TrEMBL record, chains A, B, C:
CDD domains: A4_beta-galactosidase_middle_domain (cd03143). It is an enzyme of class 3 (hydrolase). One of its GO terms (cellular component) is beta-galactosidase complex. Pfam families: Glyco_hydro_42 (PF02449), Glyco_hydro_42C (PF08533), Glyco_hydro_42M (PF08532). It comes from Roseburia intestinalis L1-82. Keywords: Glycosidase, Hydrolase, Metal-binding, Zinc. This is Beta-galactosidase. GO terms for molecular function: beta-galactosidase activity; metal ion binding. InterPro entries: Beta_galactosidase_C, Beta_galactosidase_Trimer, Class_I_gatase-like, GH, Glyco_hydro_42, Glyco_hydro_42_N, Glyco_hydro_b. GO terms for biological process: galactose metabolic process. Substrate binds at residues 112, 150, 318. The keyword Hydrolase applies.
Length: 676, 676, 676
């Protein structure tokens, strides 16, 4: 959310590139923006080459014009620093800005997100540009936010990065002895006797491709990922500091990308004034995936509203099949963002470019160039609604009694693990629990391992493979104090450096869970000859991916395996620990199971659903001084019903409902029921 | 066709490599060639290393012997210049002749087609060799054609090519401003301020692999393809000019490869005296694919007869499964070439080599080394037939009232497009219409965008995505004058540089077609949940790949979608325009539809089929001063029937037929019915 | 088998890495080893970095301690030289030790098996280390074997290898004329005029990836494989000679890997005192695959007992799905090794490491660190059995009347062949015949082409594509003398350099087999439309992969094709030749066929099965001065029965059986019936 004294409604707009068009088109743009109730534009995302034609020259003349023009036309500006793609001359003159790929291939000029984060040239000139922009435009009071660079990401394996990696390691570990210890280099005789012995883990050294990228040394590969995320974060921080010098009051963000594996957004969020992100769900993907990404983004800053920085109004251009967003779907996705905490709704892009790879990406203004399109009409209708909503929803928070732990280090560690199965998938595991919660209409927060747990009744940390130093103690305290903790197979194995906690799995969680996991059996995917099951409350469910062979050490067994030599061993346990309890799901099952089991868990923990009714309706709650807002979204193609617990009025349709009354939601419909 | 005063029958022979064998084998070769009625051999295809053992020495002694020997034995010669593979010493001494791959990998010596087209060394020594050959052998009156190099193709991404690309661009665009305009470099801040900023589009810069090769900048990638085709063409032209100096009257060709994506053969054909090509249909491929390639090749030089330079008599060696050509199939394919315009039938290869990768490729003389093989017997039988046909068919043309537009630039642009679907496939789209025509027994010509349309009744240009400057006007005139024009979805979007024509699709074709395409929906392949259909004359057909959402602007709607939110929108339209009409097929359908629809289109346009009867029989017509020749080919394994319109005599079987009489064609049978 | 005066029972132990653990753990290790009856450990596999911290320093202090400690604890030592992975400092200082990959990518430090075999640095320092170890520890009388390096393998394409390749070629071929002849370089004008023209065959030169790696020049690629195997073998020999200088009486081995394609183990075996190998069957793989690998390993040294150097007690870490070895399976696999000739049973690894890529690989001592695991209990039980078996089985040989030819050169040549089918698979072809024999309970030996055939009644050489100079004569003599020879399609095509033997396939085997193969038809895999069959003794069997079209020249036709244009042509022939006969199977069929046909062949040749009963039980025979030992293994999950021919006593269960009595084997059970 672009939190600012200048903002009095849900901002509505998108990426605008007038520099790609002759000025006579700008006027038409303004006419169309007004028609569609657009009030904010992201400017200057890819103008570095235009602003700095050579090493010593800066030319802001066109940007001056654009800034004046949009200001005159009453538009707010989300102001980008243009450093998402470096100029061609810079690549020619200073090849250190060019990245090296995972296979050692040195890049040439081209593409975007193309700068080495440890390039001295990149750092010098990106910061210089950000500073110049801030200095020059600091007095534009319609600038509502800084948009640093664009969709940061990727990796680089160049020599500069290698040298920086050694410095980063030296700073982190102090001595080679400690480095050798945490990386367990006595294995395969990898002992380093000099910092310069360390090389980056890539296809030339420790990583290789064998049904996906693998590594010989998890510790090295894990630290590289941390280092790379930090390196790019440093680039962000340098630009942020540069603009803050001139405009300390303009909030700063950069557009994130949901569950993006390369960057530890939880670390990044600490450096951002507010979260913004770009949402591009694939056609046909379950809407719960997108909901989960919204919740992750909201959780990065403890529930503070965020901005939907980009979404397509109609199609994307890069999918295998670029299917159209059906009528109503753009609106549905826009309100889904709001339902999960967004206070800003923006598009990529305002006007379709005529050349290069995004010319068939959807836009507010299509190639036909006028307002007479289905897409424009839908955008206009939503613009009207948002205008009517005014500031009602601004700043609303989403209360939750359930927390789900998500941790980037753990994600990396699970992906990098050699064994027990290539089907180990942290995202999928989290998603199974998330989806069940959402369909049960139970609100949740994503938390990182640094976040406080004390406000929650239930904490779920499926596949907490890496239980970092001290985190077990945080869980221990939480459970002792009466909380309900839940985790699943492949948890508690390692500490922060992916070194195994010896003495029996799940390591530091063993006493809390009251179990010992002796072995784990990988279940081949799709192998008809090896169907494993278990029964919970007389219903049989599948056991997939991994089956732990465990022994209870105080925990109660709720279900056991039906098959194989481990038939009868526990698959589902709960351990009373202090005033709380700790449950363990020793395998992957299906949604039927997760919904049943979580229903029981929540009931016992005293967590209630937001409403009763169709599990296909997405329901969330937000609250601010104007009251509480129950969002009801129907992503299906059929009508759905939900029974309200409280009376209220639909902000969109105007209907008023009594407590206990049914809301009927037609296909793709949205309701925001305000109660006071 | 090797058009020469020296040629009095369909030439029959193939690639002959006596230099791989001791001389005592040559005598046996001659005996076997005579048995098989072989009268032409392609010599000297891969002898560069033998002819030029080092930088200053040339040694023609063995070639002298070979040339004398084949002349004594009454054989004509298709004389290759040997530059299809450079010598090893040259690669060691001058690495500039070695190509760089798409990923930046510099090649070493090996393989063939291995020379960088912009290598100064390659150009210098390839031309020198061609000149020396021409000078030395110019008086051999049995040389019927020059065969420059061999199967030109591939790409190079070396520094020399990069520099040459900049020169090529400078020459084409004059200024950097114009370059920046046509490549739309304001997108992603790619503006070039110096010609040296330009780098080749490859994996290191703008291209990447994501369900196939993609590019960030269509304009750059498109121009690279043009440049690369031109670069290789320059190599061809340099050799051609060198031999023409000594032998101005010997026609010059190089062996093409049908629908070969890397080279713009329409541009190449202008520099060739006659077209020759190598045909290697896969086992199990529809014979219409091969027919289409023959027609494309014939169309390159306005219908002039061409040479089938290579085909295998039995098996190829590189397919995944090298299945045998069944009995009769080699003969069938040979006559298929003739049916579509070939006056020369040649094989790769005359004698199977004993080592390296083509030793299991079929040959006239197998490893067993004698005439007692099925394959040799079939070759001999065909040789006898061709001898009996004498000069009857020579020079015959194939009259047609239907033209199908094929354009290499359009092919490249569609392949490179980011969106709307990776199933966009120009070849496949053309093939659907082509196959329907062929099965309807309607003759056609392939035309390029430079070719005249005035002689045709119907012009079909499916998926004319790139409608080049002025080409709309050519179509406009054609239709106004009474012609029937037909195109399909994904047409008219861009001009020559892949820049979108704004104002509404299909751009410059909008007035001609009388429609506006507002959106296009990509249909996921094989998605059972998303079957789209439409009905034409009460029969339901599938709508696949892409469904345009369009509005008529004067055109008549012939069919509408059955499904989805665009049910009722037009899928098939025809617009009366001037004295003609312009039809549009807004989606991909199936053969049943194309056959039905084209039957109606042709009937209305007054285009008649060559004969009635089985749609599985391939029927073509050729005409010369000896009369008209109706080719009937039955590629199936069952007997088929065709009813003749005119009386005539089968040149092969000797049977005489009356008009209206049925020809019965057994499996794999061929008839050539001559009428006068 | 570790044959030594120091060995009096089947050695039992595995890889032990105490250097990865604090010394206080060592004591616990010893306690647990004793519990489990462990008596041998492989030490020092990956300690190079520890032993040689820089170029001039060697530090054996920790190894001294370890050696003392294990000696004190009564353990024997399999002593590794630690050269399987070079130290990081060496890679930094001497990049020549780093390999270059197939695509030209130069490696950096990382992984293992990472040294260029032609690196002067590697050779210098690996030999130096081996010598130092031998000198220092030569008086330890508990060293039972040298374990040189570790799992040698892989390829290198660096400049040093390229230069060494030229030297190797020069030595082998003497002249460039001969090199050009054997590589058939007149093809594609590849003639070499200087040894330095030769480059390594890789992605940069002659090889490419097209449904797998292919090559343009089979001769070059074949010689590269020979050269690479020899280069690595040279490394082994240098180390072996270094240790032999100090410890001439300690047998030397290196751990092989079964059917490992990169190294010609038949050539290697000549340099090894005994064979040892690492066996890691995939979960779900047929146990016959592993049995075949054991037999191949035993065959390398003419039947001499070998060592199972590594197997996992429970799981591996690198499989896609690391399923657990079920209860009894580790024991079953251990006895399978013994059944096929092993006198040593060892594990990787003794204690699970806590970091890096093998931390989830199974171990005797798991991360829990104690004896209370299923796996440890199974290991202990086996340890007890092996202790009880004492020296009873030591040195026992496996008599056989059937030989199966396996030849690495032939393997390489078939893999590299361009045509006739990518389904040509030498391993699979051999496996079909092997599996049928094993299931028929007929013992066999693998022989190489240098091995004597005279002791066998039947010699089988399926897919003997490369019939080397003189090998036809060996077969000819064998058959003339009354032997039965059997081969299959794609045999006899080429000589040692992959040059075709002209005059008709199967070349030099034509007279022996009494057939001429005119053509071969590749059968597309899984093509329902092309099912080929033949009938043998009234039962119909499939004909797959390749169907030869052959003519008998004296042979008797036993079966003919049912389909296609070659229906009626022979598919199964036997030729009486001298006092013996030679049979030919012209296609690939299924196990039903192979079992039926081999039953007939064996009956006629007078070869008898070891026992009657379930074909699912694996049965082998070993003999020494203590009697004969019939091994019976039941890998299935059901009980199986076998009828004994001789009376005897089960060494494991203690049961005594009469001749003709049934042995009932429960699931996973093993019996060793001793008869005298």
């Amino acid at each position: 959310m672009i939190e600012s004294s200048k903002v009095h409604k849900i901002l509505y707009g998108g990426d605008y590139n007038p520099e790609q068009w002759p000025e006579e088109i700008w006027k038409e743009d303004m006419r169309l923006f007004k028609l569609a109730h657009i009030d904010v534009v992201t400017l200057n995302v890819f103008s570095w080459a235009a602003l700095q034609p050579d090493e010593i020259t800066y030319d802001f003349s066109k940007l001056d014009k654009i800034m004046e023009y949009v200001k005159e036309n009453g538009l707010k500006v989300c102001f980008a620093t243009s450093t998402g793609a470096h100029p061609a001359w810079m690549a020619r003159k200073y090849p250190d800005i060019l990245r090296v790929e995972h296979n050692g291939m040195k890049r040439k000029f081209g593409a975007r997100h193309n700068s080495c984060p440890n390039s001295p040239t990149y750092r010098k000139y990106s910061v210089a540009l950000a500073a110049k922009l801030a200095e020059r435009y600091k007095d534009y009071d319609n600038i509502v936010a800084w948009h640093i660079s664009n969709e940061y990401g990727g990796e680089c394996y160049c020599e500069n990065c290698e040298k920086a990696f050694r410095v980063w390691l030296h700073k982190k570990y102090g001595t080679l002895d400690e480095l050798n210890r945490v990386w367990n280099t006595s294995f395969w005789g990898h002992t380093f006797y000099d910092w310069d012995d360390v090389v980056l883990p890539d296809m030339r050294s420790e990583e290789f491709n064998w049904d996906g990228i693998r590594t010989n040394f998890q510790g090295i590969s894990l630290d590289y990922r941390r280092f790379n995320s930090d390196s790019i974060l440093d680039c962000y921080k340098l630009e942020r500091d540069a603009v803050k010098e001139y405009t300390p009051d303009i909030p700063v963000t950069t557009n994130l990308m949901g569950f993006y594996p390369s960057l530890d957004y939880q670390k990044w969020a600490k450096e951002m004034d507010f979260i913004s992100w770009d949402s591009y769900p694939s056609f046909g993907a379950e809407t719960e995936n997108n909901a989960m990404a919204h919740d992750l983004m909201r959780g990065l800053k403890g529930g503070k509203p965020f901005a939907l920085m980009e979404q397509t109004p109609s199609v994307s251009n890069w999918h295998t099949y670029c299917a159209l967003k059906r009528p109503g779907v753009m609106r549905l996705y826009s309100y889904q963002a709001a339902a999960h905490g967004a206070d800003t709704i923006m598009f990529f892009q305002m006007r379709r470019s005529i050349g290069a790879c995004e010319k068939y990406h959807g836009a507010v203004i299509d190639h036909v160039g006028n307002e007479n399109t289905r897409v424009f009409r839908e955008i206009t209708a939503l613009g009207e609604e948002l205008t009517e909503l005014s500031d009602t929803l601004l700043g609303a928070r989403t209360p939750a009694e359930v927390a789900v732990v998500f941790d980037w280090d753990n994600w990396w560690a699970t992906v990098l693990s050699a064994g027990p199965s290539r089907c180990i998938n942290y995202y999928e595991e989290i998603y199974q629990y998330y989806k069940a919660l959402l369909n049960l209409h139970i609100p949740m927060d994503f938390v990182g391992v640094d976040d406080d747990l004390s406000g929650y009744k239930v904490v779920m940390a499926p596949m907490l493979y890496m239980c970092k130093d001290g985190y077990d103690e945080k869980i221990r305290s939480f459970v002792k104090a009466g909380g309900t903790f839940l985790t699943s197979y492949f948890s508690g194995y390692v500490e922060d450096h992916d070194l195994v906690i010896t003495g029996g799995y799940p390591g530091r969680l063993r006493d809390i869970l009251g179990i010992w996991v002796e072995e784990s059996d990988a279940i081949p995917a799709g192998d008809a000859g090896m169907k494993h099951t278990f029964a919970y409350k007389d219903v049989t469910y599948p056991a997939e991916v991994l089956c732990d062979l465990s022994h209870t050490e105080g925990a109660e067994t709720l279900a056991t395996y039906d098959n194989d030599f481990y038939a009868g061993m526990p698959v589902l346990t709960c351990n009373t620990f202090g005033s709380g309890k700790a449950c363990y799901v020793a395998t992957r099952s299906n949604q039927d199971f997760y919904r049943t089991f979580l229903t029981d868990i929540m009931k016992e923990a005293g967590v209630e659903p937001l409403a009763e009714g169709s599990d296909k309706v997405e329901i969330t709650l937000r609250e601010n001084k104007n009251g509480s807002f129950l969002f009801l979204l129907n992503p299906t193609d059929e009508s759905q019903e939900v029974t309200l617990k409280k009376a209220g009025t639909d902000l969109l349709g105007g209907m008023t409902y009594q407590a206990g009354e049914k809301v009927v939601l037609p296909a793709k419909a949205v309701a925001i029921v305000q109660s006071r």
